[in-house]
Amino acid sequence: MKKLIALTISLGMLLSLCSCGKTGSASDDRDVDSETVATETSNESTFESTSETTATTTSTTMSTITTTTTEKSTTEKIRTTKKTTTPTATESDFDELMKYAYWLYYSGSFDTSKLSSPEIVEKLIMPLTVGFSLYIRFYDFPKIYFGEGVYPTDPKDPMGRVDDWWCYVKLDADKVDWILMNIFDATPEHNYSLSRSYYYDGYYYINAGEGGDGGTDISIKSKELTSDGRYNITFAVTYWDGEKTTMKVVAKPKTVDGKRIWAFYSSTGAI
What we know:
The protein is of the alpha+beta class. Helices cover 45% and strands 23% of the residues. The protein has seven helices and nine strands.
């Protein structure tokens, strides 16, 4: 009887153990399935997040490319459509031109395309009469030096040309060269020596003396703008005795160092 009872108890314990084993396995399976689902869900979420980030980055990049392309296109458009315009002279420009009138009159006829830079210096920038020079239109009246026989305290020019000239002016080369380049569109030349002038160590030495005249009335009679931006200008000249004539000049207004000036190319002189 005791054996039967013990056998019954053992059988019951065995059945209990089997039941427990099945319950643990089902729980484990459910845990594995949950982890798998969570992992897949996480992967899908990561993929979606990455896709969104990639799309955003791509969108931003495309936006940047589009903006850059637009800016470049705009820049190219501006660059290709920009034109150099020829400035038209204003009334104030012609008022400025009148300040050159007497210099033009006393300079006579000239064509700068046929003159060397040294010849322009002698004929147009500093003629024999300082009072008629273009130099004093821009700078102070220069000191006039005389030969030792006249004023022994005045220095001789470096090459002793004053003995032939009797008097001369000594001009800063930078100032003269500025006039050459901006008023006559000419290139300065320093290695030269003419009958009335020469260059030496940063200065132009030019045979010139005092003098000046007046009594002539000059006014602008007509002006015509040409395709190259130059003006054909006719001046009316009336002498002190009432005689009248004209002077035709080719010139062009320009801005240099913030100032309006005129460049000159030719003149017929008073004819």
